[in-house]
Specification:
This protein is an alpha+beta fold. The protein has one helix at 42-53; strands at 20-25, 31-36, 57-66, 69-77.
């Protein structure tokens, strides 16, 4: 991992209510996926995931507009 100081003006847009995707993986590889809209912040998404996980592994992604469609950036993972 690498860090550097930055000028906050480099960003030209801010999405303060991004769409999240959550992938749960349960026993024997069974999966269940959700999209979360209008979450007030990431801690709210974390609380929802905690309530729904029921022992399953999970990955939380944020969606972004990619060059050829919707892209996903991982923001949390249980493993």
């Amino acid at each position: 991992m690498r860090t550097e100081h930055t000028d906050p003006r480099y960003a030209v847009e801010v999405d303060d209510r991004p769409t999240y995707r959550v992938d749960f993986v349960g026993a024997y590889g069974a999966t269940e996926e959700f999209r979360i809209f209008a979450a007030p912040d990431l801690p709210a998404v974390q609380r929802w995931v905690g309530d729904q996980a029921a022992g399953r592994a999970y990955t939380v992604w944020v969606e972004y507009a990619g060059k050829s469609g919707v892209g996903l950036a991982q923001v949390l993972a249980s493993r």
